[in-house]
Fold this sequence. Notes:
The complex is a heterodimer of chains A (742) and B (100).
Chain A: H1 3-8, H2 14-17, H3 22-42, H4 44-68, E1 82-84, E2 93-95, E3 98-108, E4 111-119, H5 121-144, H6 151-170, H7 174-192, H8 199-236, H9 239-245, H10 249-259, H11 264-274, H12 298-316, H13 325-328, H14 334-343, H15 348-355, H16 357-360, H17 364-385, H18 391-411, H19 415-442, H20 460-474, H21 480-494, E5 496-497, H22 501-530, H23 548-563, H24 581-586, H25 591-600, E6 603-604, H26 612-640, H27 648-658, H28 663-711, H29 718-741
Antiparallel strand pairs in A: 1-2, 3-4, 5-6
Helix pairs in contact in A: 3-4, 3-6, 4-5, 4-6, 5-6, 5-14, 5-19, 5-23, 6-7, 7-8, 8-12, 9-11, 11-25, 12-15, 12-17, 14-19, 15-18, 15-19, 17-18, 17-22, 18-19, 18-21, 18-22, 19-20, 19-21, 19-23, 20-22, 20-23, 21-22, 21-26, 22-26
Chain B: H1 4-24, H2 28-53, H3 57-87
Helix pairs in contact in B: 1-2, 2-3
Amino acid sequence: MTLVEFFRAAPVAPDILAPSLWLIIALPLLGAFICGVFGKMMGRANVQLVACAAVAGSFVLSLLAFWATSHHNPETGRLAAIFPNPFGIERDFVRYALAYDYGTWFSVGDFRVNFGLMVDHLSGILLLIITGVGFLIHLYSTSYMEHDAAYWRFFAYLNLFVAAMLTLVLADNLILLFVGWEGVGMASYLLIGFWYDDPAKAWAGRKAFVTNRIGDFAFLIGTFLLVLLVSAFTQQSNAADYNNAGTTAQHYTAALEKKGPVTFKGLEKMAEGLVDGSADKVDLSTPIEAGPLEGYTFGGVMTAAMLLFLLGAAGKSAQLPLYVWLPDAMAGPTPVSALIHAATMVTAGVYLFSRMSALLVLSPTAMATIAIIGALTSLLAALIAFAQDDIKKVLAYSTVSQLGIMFMGVGMGIFWAAVFHLMTHAFFKACLFLGAGSVMHGNGDETDIKKLGGLRKEMPWTWATFLVATLAITGIIPLSGFFSKDAILHGVHHNHLQGLEWVSSLVYYLGLLIAASTAFYMTRVYLLTFEGPRSKEARVAHAHESAWQMTLPLVVLAVLSVVAARYAFGIDFFNMTAQPVLDNFLSPVFSATKRITDASALVALDTSRPQLVPDYLKAWAVALAGGGAAAFLYLRYFPSRVGLPDPAFIRAVRPLALNKFYVDELYELIVIRPVKFMSFLLFRVVDALVIDTVAVRGTAWVTARVGSALRYVQSGDAQAYAAVMAIALLGGMAYALIQVMQ
Amino acid sequence: MVPITYYLLLAAALFCMGMFGVLVRRNALVVFMSVELMLNAANLTFVAFARMRGDDLGHVSAFFVIAVAAAEAAIGLAIVIAVFRSRGSILLEDLRTMKH
């Protein structure tokens, strides 16, 4: 049996495994329940066992599911992991994927959402990252959190987070994805504010929560726009529209009734129907005839929805203008930073756009916005990272920056490279964060890199893995970070958006600048922490290496961040013209996207491989230049100037970068202050004056006054009563007289 | 012959005086006398209309009113005397038992 045959025969066939996909989510959820409810009485070792075992079980199931996506029938040798696309015609199978629909989750009128799970190559990769890296981080936490009294709560939250993230990834429709989306937001809030008795840390959790809510709101509106768009499409389309999409109107409406309008497969079919065909009635410039969106064109609504999703993704993935929560989130425990803020949750935006790539490529405007937002975020974060001295803060800004690069990739349509960078970033950034945690653990929780130094000999395992991860993120050949980043930059350079060709070059050159900056600040962090003499201000005289539970994950992640580079090479190792493995591997996921871009010609996707001389060499030179500059400055220049003041230009620029370009202050000024002022106004005028004074106390006052006025009426005085009667009589008489006179 | 309008105007004036007395006087006896005045105003209209119509119905009614008024005056005076005995006053302002 050859290796290929081995990987083509999964231990569990897809049709057997598919109904059990829910277990992948349920296991960590069960773990969270057990740890959260019984954790206190179970004891430390049992909690750790339950939490780790839950994620490990999930990992095994994910592995099986991932394997099953490539399963071939042993007798026929044909692919077995296929299921008929409910929105397509019989021939239109979804290949390399398994799915299971657990029935209706809820339905309101025409709107229906099913609890459907799907694993294809895209979600499969994410499943493995979440459970695999997640397990390593659980293992790491058993040692890192050993002195914490509330360890059981911590592990419950961690398991909860994993369950939510798996829901996000496994969902086959937008609403179920949103459940996971919200779930990771909540778990991240709980974990960032884990040490809630420190107000600063609790505040950081709250900031993350509020910032994320802004994005989630946009996400929901985008979803509703898509729902309206689907119903408008089914009302207005003719048969030719469906020819274009490879289905029929009957099929599409039947599937809508069965699966609901927000299923990814259905949205994909609609996107295919919207691109120009010969005789079709509806394309992107057709105005919508009826309903709430009347008068807007399909393309316009699609752009609006995508931009709203961008805002949603910006909240979760820490992009401009909502990135401010991520650096503050470093207040949480370090494993949290590694799991949530490097490997999984913050990449949800990239995953979302990859999942919805078929819709995204219909709107060059939205794509250009995403790419530019990504590039600007990335550059800004990289510049801020230059001057940060807190090791975790540098890594946090670096994460924001790397996510920006992924957004550049997504925005310019090089989806596989964005996913590739997501994957390699998960490995090396988790390794860096855990390495930073290990450094803190061994140095009495010191986080200031200026007060570290010389750890190379004292913490050899941490040093070696941190070095590998640093080289990977800086983009040194032949580590994975180089290939993933370069794949994005290459794609950005060669893909073009119709009417927005300038974006490509702008983003590309910004990308080179970002690559150089990344190399610079990462080298700086590495050098100040591990090289040179030990700082005189160090908290402990000698650092100690961490326990095996902490170093083992570091080693595994470091190895992964090297071997992930394999996915950049063509299957045929010597034939450099072949597609990169991951591109080939993900092509079934992005096949609809490819068809749409070919038909619409709105985006020109380029599948060429980066060439050795112009592309790889340039990227490498850029990374080396950045790293070299940092090495020169921090190994030669600054040590030789000890005691001397910094040069003037550094003194001018450094406070600006150190204070994060005053973005937080700017938000304070233009958003928070006005909102607070409005709230104050509302409190004073509406609440205190209108509601409290007028409505509540005013009602009582009026009743009391009316009562005391009416008291005079009931005097018991017969004469007064008689007077009232007489006056009433008089009135009646006068009225009768007037009537008679008329 | 004097037209009926004059009788009616006189009766209305008497009635208003009586009513004014009932409404503003404080002494219960004067109030009673005012009530008599109103009754007599009514009697006057009865008699005037009887004269106009040329039959006895109005006269009969007037007699009935006088009889009832006499009876009522007797009972009223008895009540006033009883009140005076129990409270030492016949000023209406002091008699506010209807309040309860």
